[in-house]
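Archive maintenance. Older records in this collection stored only the sequence; we are now back-filling the structure field for every entry so that each record is complete. The fields below show one back-filled record exactly as it appears after the update. Entries are processed alphabetically, and Luciferase family protein is next in the queue.

ARCHIVE ENTRY
Title: Luciferase family protein
Organism field: Staphylococcus microti
Length field: 335
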Amino acid sequence: MKQIRYSALNLVPIREGSNDREAIDEMIQLAQTLEKLSYERYWIAEHHNAPNLVSSATAILIQHALSNTNHMRIGSGGIMLPNHAPLVVAEQFGTLKTIYGDRLDLGLGRAPSTDMATANALRRDKHDGVYQFPDEVSQLIQYFGPDTKQGYVKAIPAVGTEVPLYILGSSTDSAHLAARKGLPYVFAGHFAPQQMKEALSIYRELFKPSEFLDEPYVMVCLNVVMANTSDEAMHLATTQSQMFAGILRGRMQKMQPPVRDIHSVLSPQEATMADTRIQQSLVGDKAAVKQQIRDFMRYYGDVDEIMGVSYIYDTEKQAQSYQYFKEAIDKLNAE
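Back-filled structure field:
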C-alpha cells in the first residue's frame, strides 16, 4: 500500500446554539490545530442559500485561513465554476498566490452546489456553466500560465502564478476531464459514494501525463468520526446522521449535538439512510479505522490522499478525531 497523505475539508457549519461569526472562528481554530498536526492541506467548501453553513464566500474564507496559519496549504473544495466567471476566479486566486506564496490550492467543481433558483441568482445571465466546465477549466489553466500563452484578456496578477488546479467530482463525468487534462482528481465520497469505484477506475485508466502530473493523483473525501472507543465514535456520529437527514428533508438545520438513540430524532427511513452513510464512512477507534482504510484500499485501489470531513458537535472531540485520523494513517504508512 502506498504512503497516504491526510487532509481536511470544512463546510463551516453552524453549531446549534452558535452563530455565523462563531462558526468562522471555529474554522480558524481547526485550521491552526491541523497545521500543528502536520496536515497536508485544509480546504473550504462553497455552498449557497444553506442556513446551516457559512461557506458561501469561499475565497474570503480562504484568505482568512491563510492569514491565520503559517505553512499548511489552504484551498477550495471547491470553487463551483458555474457560479463564477473564470476571469474573476483567476484574479482572486492570483492575488492570493501573490500575497501568500505557494500555499494555495484551487479545487474546481462543475455543479452550482445549491438549488436552481439560487444558481440563477448567482449567474444572472443564465450561463449554463455545468456544460461549459471543461472549457472554463482550460481558461483557468491559460490565465495562470506564462505570459507567452495569454490572450488579449489577462487575469492580472494571476499570469505566471501556476496556481495548482484539482478537479472535483461526485460522478464519472469529471473523472474523464481530470484524466484528459492530466490534473489531480478528488472524489466526493463523503456525500456521493455511489459512483466512486467506477470514477476512480476511469481516471486511472484514461490518465494522460501532463505538465502538471506524470502519473494519476487520487484524492478521496470521506466522513471521519473517531474517538477513544468505537462506541463513543458511533455516538458522536449521530450528529452526522442528523446533518444528512436534514438534507434529505430539505430542511437544513444547524449542527446538532449527538443523541443517545438516533431513532428518537429520525424516521425509520432516515435512520436506514444514516446507517448506510456510516457504513461508507470512517467511524471508530484507531484500530477500527485503520482496518476500514485497509478495506477501502482493497476495494477502491490505492489512493494518494484521504481528505476527512468531521461533523462532530464538540470542537474538542472534533480536534481529537482529526488527531486520531492522523495517527491511524501514520501507523499504516509505517507498516
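Update note: Residues 133 and 205 are 22 Å apart (CA to CA). Strands lie at 5-10, 41-44, 73-80, 104-109, 165-169, 185-187, 218-226, 282-284, 305-309.
Entry marked complete.
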